[in-house]
Design a protein that fits this description.
Shape: globular
CATH architecture of the largest domain: Alpha-Beta Complex
CATH topology of the largest domain: Aminoglycoside 3'-phosphotransferase, Chain: A, domain 2
Bound molecules: adenosine-5'-diphosphate
Largest sheet: 5 strands, antiparallel
Structural class: alpha+beta
Strand order of the largest sheet: 1-2-3-5-4
Distance between the termini: 57 Å
Helix content: 40-55%
CATH superfamily of the largest domain: Aminoglycoside phosphotransferase (APH), C-terminal lobe
Number of domains: 2
Length: 293
């Protein structure tokens, strides 16, 4: 890998000289390859992917800017993204991560509630982005149910059909799309700024114990969708939930709707990784349809 173009772009973006001394591959990413790029007294976190995937990095860059502007939770500052001869790249501030503890988890709960208080008069965002490596649609809408039906569930169901998952999954999915309003009874979702992909692998703490979130798939939507995802794969402690609820309590219907929101991510996993998630998606749909009828 020739780091010349990337170091020049860093220099242009920061206005400071940057002479690469070393580039260490980092483990952990699902989608991209990641590196710690070091000069004498500066370090950057760099993600690389295929040259045709620049829009994915541009959307992540814009998402980090949007989150950073709120000053609610620390995120890596985006520096620059672009293309070399062979790759697309995204350069971020390098943050030395530490393990979360009870104090940082509590702070994260409080700060996430503050982030969710940042709202817009529409659902969606000013641009599409990706969830994993799959396109996530964000056309603005003033109707949350229509947004979720068309741009979240409906979209993943369409992709699943293209990937060969027809039959029961599609039939139950269609019923759910038609009848989902029943899950929202007296609850009125508000368009909060969401991280959008908030599993434990995208949240940690810095060396000072401050929470850090990264790798977002931002849009404005029901805050329950972010909370639901924290529960999907686990890893967030009681301190986190108690602190969130102390700032902004959740509606009691969340207990059912979290399955509804997480269905989107399970369908996304089905489309990304295949068969193992089919059963899980189907049983989530069965549970939700039982709630509705
Ligand atoms: P991917 O988009 O491939 O999923 P991530 O953004 O999740 O990649 O990053 C991969 C790993 O790199 C993370 O799990 C985390 O440990 C580390 N990481 C991410 N961002 C930074 C950063 N700004 N500074 C230091 N390490 C980071």
């Amino acid at each position: 890998m020739n780091w010349q173009t990337i170091s020049e772009q860093i220099e242009l973006a920061t206005g400071r000289a940057f002479n690469v001394l070393s580039a260490h591959p980092l483990a952990g990413g699902d989608i991209n390859s990641a590196f710690l790029l070091q000069a004498c007294d500066e370090s950057y976190f760099v993600k690389l992917n295929r040259i045709d995937l620049l829009t994915m990095f541009e959307a992540e860059f814009a998402g980090l800017q949007e989150l950073a502007r709120t000053q609610a939770i620390r995120v890596p500052a985006p520096v620059v993204c672009g293309r070399t001869d062979g790759h697309s790249f995204l350069v971020l501030e390098y943050i030395e991560f530490c393990c979360s503890n009870k104090i940082s988890e509590r702070l994260l709960g409080q700060q996430l509630a503050q982030l969710h208080k940042r709202q817009q008069p529409y659902f969606g965002w000013h641009r599409d982005n990706t969830i994993g490596s799959i396109l996530q649609l964000n056309s603005k809408s003033d109707n949350w149910l229509a947004f979720w039906r068309e741009q979240r569930l409906g979209w993943q169901l369409q992709l699943a059909a293209k990937n060969g998952y027809g039959g029961r999954l599609q039939a139950s999915g269609e019923r759910l799309c038609n009848d989902m309003a029943a899950l929202f009874d007296s609850y009125l979702p508000q368009p909060s700024l969401l991280h959008g992909d908030l599993w434990a692998g995208n949240a940690t703490a810095d060396k000072q114990g401050r929470p850090v979130i990264f790798d977002p798939a931002c849009y404005y939507g029901d805050r329950e969708a972010d909370l639901a995802m924290t529960e999907l794969f686990g890893g967030f402690g009681q301190e986190f939930y108690a602190a969130y609820q102390a700032v902004w309590p959740l509606d009691k219907g969340y207990a059912v709707r979290k399955t509804f929101y997480n269905l989107y991510h399970i369908l996304n996993h089905l489309n990304l990784f295949g068969g193992g998630y089919l059963r899980q998606a189907e049983s989530m749909m069965t549970l939700l349809l039982a709630e509705i009828n």
